[in-house]
Amino acid sequence: MLTLALIREETEEVIRRLKVKNFNAEHIVSRIIELDKNRRSLQHLQDSKQAELNKISKEIGIHFKEGRKQEAEMLRQKTADLKEEIKEINQQFEKNDMELHNLLIQLPNLPHPSVTPGRGAEDNIIVREGGKQPELDDNALPHWDLAKKYDIIDFELGNKITGAGFPLYKGKGAKLQRALISFFLDENEKAGYTEFMPPLMVNQDSGFGTGQLPDKDGQMYYVNADNFYLIPTAEVPVTNIYRDVILEADVFPVKSTAYTPCFRREAGSYGKDVRGLNRLHQFDKVEIVQIQHPDKSYESLEEMVAHVESLIRKLELPYRIVKLCGGDMSFTSALTYDFEVFAAAQKRWLEVSSVSNFESFQANRLKLRFREAGDKKTSLAHTLNGSALALPRIVAALLENNQTRKGIILPKILHGYTGFSIID
RNA sequence: GGAGGAAUGGCAGAGUGGUCGAAUGCGGCGGUCUUGAAAACCGUUUUCCGGGUGACUGGAACGGGGGUUCGAAUCCCUCUUCCUCCGCCA
């Protein structure tokens, strides 16, 4: 959520920059400014009426205490109109405020000035590539066939137990999941992130805090009986640790990591995008989250990008880093780098991580603030997060790229975690 | 799941209808004293929304929401959370 102060003071700039995200904000913004003006004059009116009422109430109290019943009674009659007026003004105020809030949450985050305009994925900018694409035979198998051949992931059984998009990992397949999770968590911890194991369901306030609600309502699984949402990413519970919190500036950067399963309804997805592990309803991911001083959040973003890159390099996978254009960026993000690995049998780039700076957009929803040492006033902190990493597509690439006649040879770094070096 | 009790500032804890944003203690910050520190003493100490260049000033908040009242931390309803007892249970 953008702050009112920003919209009020930098109106043209806000509209201009939202255009980079292909969002025409002119109407909403001008209405917001109108409602904001309205809000302040209504509040002023309400405050002064309330002050009057408070004053009279105090006088009545004094009269009663000193036994002047008649005077008290006279004053009491005076309050009726005043109360009615306040009630009416308050209703207007609340109506005004609701409309204001509803408009405010419709505005996406401003893209960073360096973000280029564009329609979608085709306009993203490749920042750099790394690793080596393997040369596979023509009869190389996509990972879903390999999973079957080596009996490590059973999609049909997952289907039977739950439904499409809920794979059943088995034997070395299951162990590989556990190994990757441990590997990622260990690496993140070495990079200074504190490990958390958060709840997998969140309430409405948390969903709102990180921006999933209300706009991505339909993308989350919802537990009706208790009004909970299954988390689509660990970002939600981990970032919400700091909802309604005021930090002292010397704690920055706050670095957290967590492994969780992630649940996504993925309504509207279809086709070859969803084959095998490419797109799932339940998948495993290790997430990193940072809370940082506004002056340093872009340093943190670069640091996170370098860290994620190091993980992929250790897994010896061919990858590229993509800077998203305005049109491909999420609602909440100011700047996003996507990481893609090359799955050599599918001959496709698969997104395995998305590292973003949300600046104060989430913090404003979360009421996550900080105070400079010795300062009295608070300001909004910046939040960032990224996958480090999401498992399924990493597994897809590992299986496809490392297939040999003998079996699938795992990168050395994982051997200590899996206890085996080949899936055969 | 059933029965009872509770929720107040960073923490502890008073306050049961009126000048209460809230006693007191601890902690924090500033000062006096001291070569320095401790102790002692003095002062200060929540957040949000407004008005004013500013001194300053209006309003809101005692778990959340609603109600009664001229007036609510205090009374009523409701939700949430915690504690005690019982039941069930990995």
Would you give an account of this structure?
The two termini are 51 Å apart. The chain folds into 2 domains: 4-104, Orthogonal Bundle (Helix Hairpins); 121-423, Bira Bifunctional Protein, Domain 2 (BirA Bifunctional Protein, domain 2). It has 424 residues and is an alpha+beta fold. 42% of the residues lie in helices and 21% in strands. The relative contact order is 0.14. The protein is built from 13 helices and 18 strands. Strands 1-11-12-13-16-10-9-4 form an 8-stranded mixed β-sheet. A 3-stranded antiparallel β-sheet has the order 5-7-6. β12 and β13 form a beta hairpin. The model has no long low-confidence stretch (mean pLDDT 93). It binds one RNA strand of 90 nucleotides through α3 and α4.
Features:
single chain, 424 residues, alpha+beta, Helix Hairpins, BirA Bifunctional Protein, domain 2, 2 domains, eight-stranded mixed β-sheet, three-stranded antiparallel β-sheet, 13 helices, 21% strand, RNA-binding
